[in-house]
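[retry 2/3] Putative RNA-directed DNA polymerase from transposon BS: previous attempt timed out, resubmitting with same input.
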Amino acid sequence: MERNRSKKVWQRFRDPTSKNLFNRAQARFRNAMSEFNQSRYISQNEQLNIYDGTLWRRAKRLKSKRSENPQLKNPDTNLPSHTDLEEEEIIADHLESQFTPNDFGDPNTERTVEKSIREFKNEIRTSKFKKVQSSEIICFMKHIKINKAPGIDSITNKMLKNLPLKIIVKLTEIFNHMLKFRHFPNCWKTARVLPILKPGKDRTHPVSY
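[retry 2/3] Putative RNA-directed DNA polymerase from transposon BS: success.
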């Protein structure tokens, strides 16, 4: 998708040109989503009829009094969101603006970091590294809090605390292989983010979450 490609380019180079291209792609994406939702709504209304009860159910739902739930607004356009997908995009953009890489602004520092990373990647892989011990994992498991939310695998901290020794040994092998081959699984880089409204804040603003 054009929007995702331009977003990756902007995240990599952080220059005004790529930012403008990303903003334009973002606007086209949102316009396309708005047109799609509008056409879907019209199509659904055209299919309503009195024989299967869909018309009466729609009329009843429209006439019923519902508690007003303010819609999340896009901070760029100040327009309200109409779908869950649009709300997800607004929250995602807000979180991305908060968690961006630091811009040191020092070319020498950037070159030093890039050189270190390049040397690390090109360095010959050997078994000479400090290996993780099963005792370290057991010690860590004892101190984790059980009231923390699980990840996308739904494995809770309480479950981790009760792992048998055989699984601890397997985890130790996995961690050591990760260090040896310098590989971090993509599935461990994915997280589920649930925005929670701050007390007394305006629910239409993404900064309130």
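[retry 2/3] Putative RNA-directed DNA polymerase from transposon BS: The chain has a mean pLDDT of 81.
[retry 2/3] clearing retry counter.
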